[in-house]
Write a sequence for this structure.
């Protein structure tokens, strides 16, 4: 049983061994997380070539050697050659995070199927047992949590920052957080107007208490 975490790899050195379709899929996820990516492979897909041409990553056009992993924080072996993937696993240091695409048991982390909706991130993992099932669940959740839900989460973030800065009563904060997170609030749609009305009610309550 794994321990789920959200890993901040922005500006961290990530090495991807392999230049095929699997590697390309991994790279797109790493780019979303703003990692610094080095790809090690004799050949790469046209998609990876485009990313390299755009300056999104560095490509070392060569076969794998252990020194390719120097200074890497995260290592992903995504070749179609088990011997190469095994060599990567053996070369990795104990402090490095490593994912072997075709050997979950040799990996110390797994890459889940991911849905991103603004600040909302949903990750689905089967612990390496069945990436296909994870993808099926991801497609089901994509329909439930659409782009509109992403805008709602972004709205909640903005409201939370405002409340933390301007509402000093802890109980009122909790009431506001609970109100804007309620499903009925989201479904009504007019979030800005609804939030303004909630704030007016808070102000009215404050005035009433002071007058008593």
């Amino acid at each position: 049983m794994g321990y789920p975490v959200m890993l901040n790899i922005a500006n961290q050195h990530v090495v991807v061994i392999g230049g095929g379709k699997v590697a390309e899929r991994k790279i797109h996820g790493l780019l979303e997380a703003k990692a610094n990516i080095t790809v090690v492979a004799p050949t790469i897909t046209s998609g990876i070539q485009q990313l390299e041409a755009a300056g999104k990553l560095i490509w070392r056009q060569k076969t794998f050697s252990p020194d390719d992993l120097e200074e890497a924080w995260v290592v992903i072996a995504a070749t179609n050659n088990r011997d190469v993937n095994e060599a990567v696993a053996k070369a990795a240091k104990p402090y490095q995070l490593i994912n072997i695409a075709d050997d979950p048991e040799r990996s110390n982390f797994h890459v889940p199927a991911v849905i991103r909706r603004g600040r909302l991130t949903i990750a689905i993992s089967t612990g390496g047992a069945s990436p296909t099932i994870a993808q099926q669940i991801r497609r089901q959740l994509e329909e439930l949590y659409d782009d509109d839900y992403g805008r709602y989460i972004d709205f909640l973030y903005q409201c939370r920052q405002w409340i933390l800065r301007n509402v000093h009563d802890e109980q009122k904060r909790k009431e506001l957080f609970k109100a804007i997170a309620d499903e009925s609030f989201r479904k009504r749609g007019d979030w800005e107007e609804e939030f303004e009305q909630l704030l007016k009610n808070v102000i009215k309550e404050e005035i009433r208490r002071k007058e008593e």
Remarks:
- The CA atoms of residues 150 and 191 lie 13 Å apart.
- Residues 147-211 form a domain with the Helicase, Ruva Protein; domain 3 fold (CATH 1.10.8).
- The chain has a mean pLDDT of 91.
